[in-house]
């Protein structure tokens, strides 16, 4: 038996194309039995089969093989598609399991939970404690709103909002992984000095000052394309985003980062259009972007495009968020940036149970 992976120029968690060649009669019967539930299974010739597998299908198939040589060939293919996100204090294997990445707003004017209490230290500590108990793997602090039409504040004011909470959170939760959402190099440098693990930039590290901070500190990071700067490579989302992120990946690697430190985010909900269609196209770009082979963030929690497209208002957006997040996980998204930690963790647990059978 020969096992060949086709389309090796890209990665995938959803469409791994394998060709089994030179099968004898018994191998053909055995392989067909192993894959009888797979609707893509195609007999190309009397001794040849073609099949398209998800990463979970592949993992299960490996466990069904008894021949060590065949098993090793499949394990090599599996390893090529592994998705790891790592930083100085963490290492997440996201190949088959997604994680919850909690939004902790330290700002009174967030689009969803804007509240003066967000600036209260005891409120922040209680929120983080609850999110950790409910299953958050990463906690992200944001010192200013980035919603469409937001009122900007100075980097100094943003840092002043973040400084005390970061220091107290690091003291109270020393093993927790913290991120900060900021588009300011000044703030990036100060939060990294304070011990933050991850920087999330909605503008995708688009200035020399930000890139200098990345080169100096070598942090784990999240790079977004939010659409506000327009298109540079194509005239549509589905071609623009892969080209943008391939170039961004190379730019960051040249600064000394490893691929495992880089997460990409398609930037859902930042384009202030009337219909919300740009946001939905970005949601539907998940599978295409997963082919780059980097961890992919799902950041759609309760965003306003759901009201425009689905007439989902207020708390109704939790339901539409969970529905779309489930589809994006199936398409290869692995880091769910959310307001509703408990509900999202239950969604991910349900997906894991579903995949067992």
TrEMBL record:
- Which cellular component terms (GO) are annotated to the entry? cytosol
Keyword Metal-binding found: yes
Give the coiled coil ranges.
Answer: none
- Enzymatic reactions: (7,8-dihydropterin-6-yl)methyl diphosphate + 4-aminobenzoate = 7,8-dihydropteroate + diphosphate
Provide the alphabetized UniProt keywords.
Answer: Folate biosynthesis, Magnesium, Metal-binding, Transferase
Enzymatic class:
transferase
What terms describe the molecular function in GO for this protein? dihydropteroate synthase activity; metal ion binding
Cofactor(s) needed: Mg(2+)
Which PANTHER family does the protein's record reference?
A: FOLATE SYNTHESIS PROTEINS (PTHR20941), FOLIC ACID SYNTHESIS PROTEIN FOL1 (PTHR20941:SF1)
The UniProt entry, under NCBIfam families, shows: DHPS
Protein name in the entry: Dihydropteroate synthase
Q: Which organism is it from?
A: Lactococcus lactis subsp. lactis
- Specify the taxonomic lineage: Bacteria, Bacillati, Bacillota, Bacilli, Lactobacillales
